[in-house]
Each structure stands twice: as C-alpha cells, then as structure tokens.
Amino acid sequence: MTLLKSPSQPLLLATDLDGTFLAGDADARKRLYHLVDAHPDIKLAWVTGRGREAILPLLADPGLPTPDYVICDVGATVLRTADMQPIQPLQSQIEARWPGEHVVADAMRRFPMLVRQEVPQERRCSYYCHPEQLSTIQAEVEAVAASLGCEVLYSADRYLDILPHGTRKGSTLTALVDELSLEHARVLVAGDTLNDLSMYGEGFPGVCVGESEPALVAATTGMDNVLHAEAPGCGGILQAMAHFDLIEAEGYAPPTHAPGKAELVMVYHRLPYEEHIVDGQRLRKPHTSPNGIIPSLLSFFADGRPGSWVAWTVDDPKAPPIEPRATVDAERYPGLTATHVPLTKHEVDVFYKRFSKEAFWPVINSFWERARFNEDDWSLFKRVNRRFAEAAAAEAAPGATVWLHDYNLWMVPSVLRELRPDVKIAFFHHTQFPSADIFAILPWRREILGSLLACDYVGFHIPRHAENFTDAVRSTFPVEVTARASCAPRFLTFGCAVGVEDMATELRIDGRTVRIGAHPIGTDVGRIRASLETEQVADDIVRIRDEIGRRKLVLSIERLDYTKGILQKLHAFERLLDESPELRGEVTLVLVCVPAAKEMTVYRPLQQQIEQAVGRINGRLSQLDWTPVRFFSRVLPFADVVAHYAAADVMWITPLRDGLNLVAKEFVAVQGLEGGDGVLVLSEFAGAAAELKGAVLTNPHDPADMARTLRQALVMTPGEREDRQRRLFDIVRHHDLSRWGREFLAAARGRQDEGDAGIPTARAA
User: Fold this and answer.
1) Rounded CA gap, 383 and 354, in Å?
2) Which among 147, 265, 304, 509 has most CB atoms closer than 10 A?
3) DSSP class of residue 716?
C-alpha cells in the first residue's frame, strides 16, 4: 500500500515506546531520532501503557526526541508536552466515563487472584493474574467491569487493565487526530504487542516492527494498512516511512562526529594557564595564583597520556585570533593540549557572572528567596554548555573519560551523551547540592537532573550532598536505588548538620545505571610545605605575631558572599566582647574578605553592611592600643595567607552554607606542618564538618552558639588544642588533593581499588 505525501500536512508518528520507539539497533535509533528532531514536517506522539509519572524520565532524556503529545495509561491520559497539561475536551470526556479508582478497586476485591500492579496509573486499574486462573474468571471480571461502565483490556495473557468504556490507545489517538484536524492518511502508528492492536484498527497506516509479539502479527495479518517490518524497533519505523512513502528523509542524515585522540578530557571553567596580550600576540604563562586544583588535575597528564583540557577564553574582536587548540607544556605534559571555547564578554557575563550566580547559586546554597530566573539567560546558558559539549566530543578518543567540573556545566552531559554515546562521563559537583524541595524551585530542574543522569558517575564532596541529589531525582522521576553504602567511619554520621548515616551509590533509571560517590576535595600539602620553607613566609609570620603581641589572633578568611555568614560572624564577635568584657584587649579578629568581581553587583550592598558593622564595633569598643577588628577587603597572595594561618591561634570559619571549605584544610595543614596547636572553629553547615573530626563545630545561625564556641576555643587548654590539631592534621595530610583526584578518577572508571574511595563499600539496596 502506498500513500501520497501531502506537502501541506505534517506527518504524525504515533508510536509505542518499549519494544518500538526505544528499541532497535543503535544506528537505526540515531537515524530515526535525528529525523524526528530535524524534519520540520514530523510531529511525534508517544502512545504507551506507562503512566504519566513513568514517562517523565524519558522526557528528560537528552538522547530522545521530545514528543509533541503523549497518550499514556493505555489511552486514558492525553497530554500536550509543551506544558504537560491535559488536552481538552478529550481528557474530560474520558474522565466522565470513569467511575473512580476506589469504586473499581473495591469491585475487583471479589477476585483475590487479581494482584494490583504497583505502577503509576490514572483513570485505570491494572492487575496481574496467572494465565490459568485468569481464564476461569475472565467472563465474570468483564461482567463486573461492564456494570461499572468499564471495559477490560488484556495483554500477554496475564495482564489486564480496567478502563473507561470505549477507551483504548486507538480511540484516544483518533480523537486527538480529529482534534488537531490531521489527515488520517498522514498518521503512522507503530507498535509491537497486542496492547497496540487498537491503533491499527482505526485505519491509520501502521507498522508492526520486527520481533513483534506473535499475537499482534496474527491479529494484523490481512490488514492492507499494516506493514510487518523485518527490522526491530526504530529500524522497522524507518522501513514503514519508506514503504508508505510518507516523508522525504533525504538530507536529514545525522551528523557524524569523528573521535579525537584524548583518552582523558578535562572540562573546567579555567584554562590551565593565563593568557596575556603582549605586542599583538597571545602569550601564555602559569597562573600567578593557582587555586590548588589546577596543578592536581594537570598531574594526570604527567605520564604523557593523550589528553585535552577544555575551557573558555574571552573572544575579544580587538585581540589577536584565538587558537582552537594550544600546547599546555610540551616538556611536563607532552600529550596534553588545551581546547579553547571562545565566548564573548557578554556570554561570560551572563553565563558565569550573572545567571549562574543569580539563578543557581542562591538555590544551591538554600537562599532561594534571592534567586532570579530569566528564560533568555537560561537559553544562553544551554547554548554555552552545548559548545563545551561539542568541544569535548571532538577531543575525546573512543571510550575516553570526560571529567566535567561543577554546576556551570550542568547541561553538558546531556549533549555529550547524545554526541558521543561511547565515552564515560564523570561529573564532580564542587558546591553543595541542596535538599530536594529547595532544588525543585528551579524552573528547569527536570532538564538539569535529566542531564546529570546522562553521566556514568556523579561525585560530591560529602554523603549529605549525594543523598540530596538522590532525593531530588527520586522526587522527579521513578528511579530505583540499587546500592547503598555506610558513611562511617570516613564521615561523621551524627552530631553535625550535614551528617548522614548511609547514602545511595547506584541508581537505575530506564535501563541505565548511574553511580554516585562522595569525595571531599583535599588541599595541596606539598605546595603549603614549599611556601612555609620560603624566607618571605618565615619573616611574615614573625611580623604578624609581633603586630598582634600577647593577644590571641582569631583569623577569618572568606570570599565576599552572603553564604559565608560574615555579618553574622561580626555580630557574634561583638556579642562575645559584650558578654565577656575581660576579653577586650586580649583578642583581635583579623577579617580578610576577598571581594567579588566588579560585574557581580549583587554583592555591593553586603560589602557596605560589612564595612558599617566593622566601623561600629571598632568605634564602640576600640582602646588606645587595641582595635577589635582588623578588616582587609582585598585578595592576599598565597604566601601572605599561609603566614596568617601559621600566626593564628583560632581559625574561625562560619559559612551559613558551604560545599566544603578548603580554607579550613589549609589552616590545619599549615598548623600541622609548623607543629602548631591552632584551634579550628567550623560551621556545622560546611561540608568539611562531616570530615574534619577535631574541629569545634558551631551553628552560624545561632549568635549565642557562635559566641560560646569561639570563647571555648580561646580558653581551651593546651592539651586539648594539641589533641584536636593532631587528629585534624592526620585527616588532612592523608586525604590530600592528589589522593582526591586519584580516588575520584578511579571510582569514575569503576576501579576503586586504585585508591581509597570516599565511600569504599556498597551493599544492595
């Protein structure tokens, strides 16, 4: 049978999912999915027995075309996917014929051999029954259903659905086609089980894909409008499109992506070097103030393995042209190249400095009331992420590992999985991950979670963040936790705000497995040791101690950010001095506040409030030879920071929320290498609190507790100070930055035996 194409009418592909649209060989799926996505005359409808909840993960799957319509619950639910709202009046007409779930369930209780299926379902009741038992009660079940105004639909001789009278996949599809005023000859239906039979009975051109259920093949034999394809799944659908001459597919072949040579692709927001324009040329040199992680990540390429580092660079039309690829360091990393993702200044400002900080950052850190959402910015964010994914796809060798870093690249995994299904995708979340109810505030939560679920491995600092991620996924999609692991003894399980007893380590969703791990980042102890050995740092330590004199030095180094609790810290310090007047003149708070980039105007009011608080405290409590707070609003060179760490008696780190906090670990490392006994007072809402056993934990939301714990640190006996510092240094020295990188990469590749994994043991859920 051949049907003529109508140029004025789109083609509606109405297809079952399992065994049909989700089946077939990889090449056929790729060709069909790209054709549906790219061809302007193709509309897509999923017609499935699944319930609405069960299709949500498929809608977030980056590898699948998004349907225009969904008919689910075996025809009882019909949705427009643009807003996931029911299509009226079709849905109301079905609802009017449904007596109600409880009415049907109560009526079916007279048949104890019927087992209610525990799957999401609306306007239907689904049951399982052993075939031998079903044959004995079939007539009676149908009679009871008819008395309620319902019908019974059977599948595989053992499953049955009680549905509203006249409700089938086929009847609902016909109603939708008529509502949309489509030509019946321009609708192609596809299926593989007897459950799909009603679609063929409506007279649409149809295909029983290869390997269909024999009962369906038998039932459709002799129908002129039905093709029995040889190829299974998507391959059969493509055969039907050609057989019925329904669409012009030439020119819509999927693009090919030749693999690169990099066995390890690092995708990070910073290049592994700095670029400077000198005499009209781009010159590269090492970072003047590397953040520690860059040298550690570079170390993976020291053995000469082929690798690529993908990062953005600002594309300034007034500057020299950007090289697409550049050598990083031919002597130290002979196999490593840097791949530049050119971004305009506007794109950087929106993607990183504005949207990420104004939409994502507040939600990530549970300050949802500060979040500002903008659809245009979200669109730009996705476009930038696609360019990162395309660059990584072009660099990765067959089967390579692509290591993605942080929330700025949330949407990269979805595109990368589509472009390069062969690569292993690992994602490390450097910030905290909020609780599920807070993450749900994001308008794009389904897309974000769907993208992260395209990864093979997702790592977080601590188990609490991993559990928050799992909860967010479970509240959004039907997912199975297939393995869990105990968090002790590596992490605190009780006694701090971010403790958790165990965590999910493996999720199963729509046939894919996603593994999860906890890997708190470490500090570069070797770099700190080298800094302490310099004459400059030694002199600075003496100078700082001379300036402080006999007084206790309380040190605070924070980035300017509302999440860091700087104002709360100042109020607590003022409270301590008011409640303990004997400490006046005996303790000095050195507050270093690293300013934000000038484009981040959101932090300007906070800067003013901090300066006013410092002025008030010093104005009210200062003495002739003593200033309570010494405030510095600038970036200190790393050598100066190390010197202050060494000179401090107490390190006071009190963020309201923090993914980890490396400053705490740097302080512990300096004190340990110097043989000091400085006390770490740490917010129990910092990720490091779950790891750094020996810190004095404090609640930054409780001014009284903040003042009490700081006083505890100031009056602590030397023996307790030494014991706490010894425990802390043992943790920091062992779990250093290098070990973090090795453990994460080994876990991402499924080889935890290469290092002590953050969560080493797992058990079936």
Assistant:
1) 15
2) 265
3) -
Q: Where are the beta strands (DSSP E) in 235-350?
A: 262-267, 274-278, 281-285, 307-314, 325-329, 333-343
pLDDT digits (tens, 9 = 90+) for 229-267: 999 999 999 999 999 999 888 878 877 777 899 999 999
Q: Buried b vs exposed e over 356-383: b needs ≥16 C-beta within 10 Å?
A: bbbbbbbbbbbbbeebeeeeebbebbbe
CA dist., res. 459 & res. 444, Å (int): 21
Phi, psi of 200 (to 5 degrees): -70, -30
- Tell me which residue has tokens 């950007």: 322
- In this structure, are residues 51 and 120 in contact, taking their beta carbons and an 8 Å threshold? yes
Distance CA 758, CA 738 (A): 13
Type of residue at 748 = A
Q: What radius of gyration do the chain's Cα atoms show?
A: 31
What string of H, E and C letters represents the secondary structure of 111-127? CCCCEECCCCCCCCEEE
Nearest in space to 402 (alpha carbons), one of 384, 421, 378, 430: 421
**pLDDT band at 4; cut points 50, 70, 90:** very low
DSSP single-letter state for residue 408: G
Spell out the residues 6+ positions from residue 18 whose beta carbon is closer than 8 angstroms to its own. Answer: 48, 50
Q: How confident is the model at residue 299 (pLDDT cuts 50, 70, 90)?
A: confident
3-class DSSP string for 124-148: CEEEECCHHHHHHHHHHHHHHHHHC
* Banded model confidence at residue 754, pLDDT cuts 50, 70, 90: very low
Higher pLDDT, 601 or 336: 336
- Please report the beta strands in 19-116, taking only residues with DSSP state E, as ranges in sequence order: 42-47, 69-72, 77-80, 85-86, 115-116
Residue carrying the six token digits 């993607």: 351
Does residue 114 register a pLDDT over 50?
A: yes
Distance CA(19)–CA(192), nearest Å, equals 6
b/e sequence 183-195, b meaning 16+ C-beta within 10 Å: eebbbbbbbbbbb
Q: What is the pLDDT of residues 624-658, one digit of tens each?
A: 999 999 999 988 899 999 999 999 999 999 999 99
> What letter represents residue 234's amino acid?
C
Q: What is the mean pLDDT of residues 536-559?
A: 95
DSSP letter at 658 equals B
Q: Are strands 307-314 and 333-343 parallel, antiparallel or unpaired?
A: parallel
Phi, psi dihedral angles at 528 (to 5 degrees): -65, -40
Alpha carbons 78 and 74: distance in angstroms, whole number: 10
Contact between 477 and 444 under an 8 Å Cβ cutoff? The reply is no
pLDDT at 294: 85
Bond before 120 cis per omega within 30 degrees: no
- First-last CA distance in the chain: 52
Q: What is the enclosing helix (H) or strand (E) of 631?
A: strand 629-632
Q: How far apart are CA 454 and CA 433, in angstroms?
A: 18
State the pTM of this model: 0.85
CA distances from 590 to 569, 665, 702 (A): 12, 18, 21
E strands of 461-510, at which residues?
480-486, 502-509
Phi and psi torsions of 355, nearest 5°: -65, -50
Summarize the chain as % helix, strand, coil (round to 5).
Answer: 40, 25, 35
Structure tokens at 639: 């050598």
SS (HEC) of 560-622? CCHHHCHHHHHHHHHHHHHHCHHHCCCEEEEEEEECCCCCCHHHHHHHHHHHHHHHHHHHHHC
